[in-house]
Specification:
The chain is an alpha+beta fold. The chain folds into two domains: 62 residues, Arc Repressor Mutant, subunit A; 68 residues, no CATH class. 43% of the residues lie in helices and 19% in strands. A two-stranded antiparallel ribbon has the order 1-2. A two-stranded antiparallel ribbon has the order 3-4. β1 and β2 form a beta hairpin. α1 crosses α4, α2 crosses α3 and α5 crosses α7. It is flat.
Amino acid sequence: MARKKDNRRRIFVHEYIQDFNATRAYIAAGYSEEGAGQSASRLLKNTNIREQIARLLEDRCRELAITKDRVLRETALLAFANMEDYMRVQDGDAYVDLSKLSRSQAAAIQEITSEVYVDGYEGTGEERQPIRVKRTKLKLAEKRGALELLGKHLTLFHDRIEHTGLDGGPVEHTIRFGDGDKE
């Protein structure tokens, strides 16, 4: 019986780290659907389960070379991407120029769309040829979210402000009352 319980818990842990849906993992591990949400929540409070999850996630991050520094660096690439790095200006017109693009700059590109269209004709008779124009659109990753994440990491934004006194102690208040009615 204990072996079946251990096997279910092992399956639960492996299922849970797939999408972090405890209820789905609980059911996939062979437990009853009835009360699955509450029971799965209880399982997640189990110290051994939490340790197994942490160990598997740590192994996964190591295998994928995911580090805090790498995530922070990638977030910074998105946050500080500048359209000027992806274009050149010629005769007052802006053109997308990816010829000198670095891998770091490419990380900030969300979408590139190229299209060719006919913009009139030149010449007459049999020599008449369409004027083909190529248009390239470049869309960079959304900066605001990346900047917010970096700001939170650097504790630049505060939802709540705590005030402390000297050396982090409590704030002391002194209330002075008047000397009373002097005549």
